[in-house]
Amino acid sequence: MSQSDPAASARRVIEMELEGLKRLGESLGGDFAAAVTRLRDLPGRVICAGVGKSGHVARKIAATLASTGTPAQFIHPTEASHGDLGMISPDDAVLALSKSGETRELGDLVAYCRRFATPLIAMTSGGQSMLARAADHVLTIPDAPEACGETRAPTTSTTMMMALGDALAVALLEARGFTAENFRTYHPGGALGAALTAAADLMHTGVSLPLAAETDPMTGALIEMSEKGLGCVGAVDADGRLTGVITDGDLRRHMGPDLLTKTVAEVMTRDPRTISPGALAADALREMTAGAVKITVLFVADAEGRPVGVLHIHDLLRAGVK
After folding, report:
1. CATH 3.10.580.10 domain residues, the chain
2. How many helices (H) and strands (E) are present in the chain, helices listed first?
3. Which class would CATH give 6-178?
4. How far apart are CA 74 and CA 60, in angstroms?
5. Does the reported pTM lie above 0.90?
6. What's the Cα-to-Cα distance from 48 to each of 30, 124, 158, 207, 257, rounded to whole Å?
7. Dist. CA 95–CA 62, nearest whole Å
8. What is the DSSP letter of 209?
9. Phi and psi dihedrals of 46, rounded to 5?
């Protein structure tokens, strides 16, 4: 018996699944748009259901929908037949996944939708199947060959279902005007939550903000730097706008017997980099590390250029921002 080439097998699988995805993209039409409109205007949740590998995909679709602003929940069809149908409210819609559209376990769920006029969206390659005929909208999966050959285990079909679920979630996200700030509300944990944290959530403000007037003597500025412990002090003009910043590096460059006789304006670095309060913390970190000159502190300024906070790179790294 000859040994197969694992890399060649892998490439064949990927190529077959890519072909399936290409056919899926070409097949999208009016029913997809109608399903998006129906779900966008839905007052309740999207109940995702499926059996076997389709069930695993349905769970993932429910999670993706929920994290992108479309309330969703997974219900197993078998459990639905034993009481979980009561979880479906009159305001909900059902998204049922089945490659053949003839999955026996979906029968009670489909009958429930018809009895109570619950919107039913089918994701199937069986265009004339029981599920498709009962559905209000059919998201058709092309009947492409499975990538595993004779065993016909779900591979290409589940890849297409996964992609179509992602497409549905993103289309709904855009239809709802869902933003990164909204996403952060639903996903505060982990690296993704950290990346979507706003600068305003991590900055030092109020009495912790190290500031001095341009005309102040350096003796006062040094005291301010020492008390606030951030290794910097922001310089403001008579209107309260940020015009410069003094860091430890500026002190070293101006170190000499006359340092304490100078004013803040004589020592500060003018036109410092700033960021807005609503900017993402990840953008703040990129601003600090971009270019030839790296900085460890970044002032946060409002639209008029007045400082409202300051970020230290350690604040960002502790929060998990990358």
Report:
1. 199-318
2. 15, 12
3. alpha beta
4. 9
5. no
6. 21, 13, 15, 50, 73
7. 9
8. S
9. -95, 115
Reported CATH class of domain 199-318 = alpha beta
Contact between 27 and 142 (Cβ < 8 Å): yes
Region(s) of the chain under CATH 3.40.50.10490: 6-178
Any idea how long the chain is?
Answer: 322
Helix axes 156-176, 30-40, angle to 10 degrees: 50
One-letter amino acid at 57 equals: V
- At 195 the pLDDT is 64
Give the model confidence (pLDDT) of 281-300 as tens digits: 888 988 998 877 889 999 99
pLDDT tens digit sequence for 151-198: 778 899 999 999 999 999 999 988 888 766 666 666 555 556 666 788
> Is the separation of the CB atoms in 321 and 281 below 8 Å?
yes
Q: Which two tokens stand for residue 223?
A: 């005291």
193-207 b/e (C-beta count within 10 Å ≥ 16 → b): bbbbbbbbebbbeee
Three-state DSSP class for 137? strand
Map residue 136 onto helix, strand or coil. Answer: coil
